[in-house]
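Continuing the batch. This is chain 6 of the set; chains 1 through 5 are on the previous pages. Same settings as before, nothing changed between runs. Recording input and output for traceability.
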Amino acid sequence: MKKASSPIRRLNIFIFFLIAGLIYTFAVSCDSGPPENSKFAQTQRGKAHYLNYCSDCHGEDGKGLKIDSLEKQPANLTIIQARRREDAFPILEVARIIDGRKMAEAHGSRKMPVWGEIFSEDEHLDETQIKGKLGEIIAYLMSIQGT
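Output for chain 6:
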């Protein structure tokens, strides 16, 4: 004859599996990281682009390096907003400067690479991809203001 499970034993088993399930759910959700389109994820991708394309002249910290061969030194990118004395970061202006294609046509040559051209011709990105990359770089630049 089988002995029936006591209600307390069944409750303990239920609580055990409930807690184990909650711990598993918590552990899985912690490993997933931020959502792909979150501001944090965009800023992190922007930082990677910045380190790849910009840090040789502007430094890893964004404060600009002294390069003897350049007449005009690279800008300190941590004070973009403060230098303009504006409440809002000048997103469109910074995008135009980084992209550089329209500026180069209008103002002749410039010392900074025309990244829009490089992204288009060398990396074969379309306009949407270029704007996405610029947006990520700008998100990173916004995150280092005043550092």
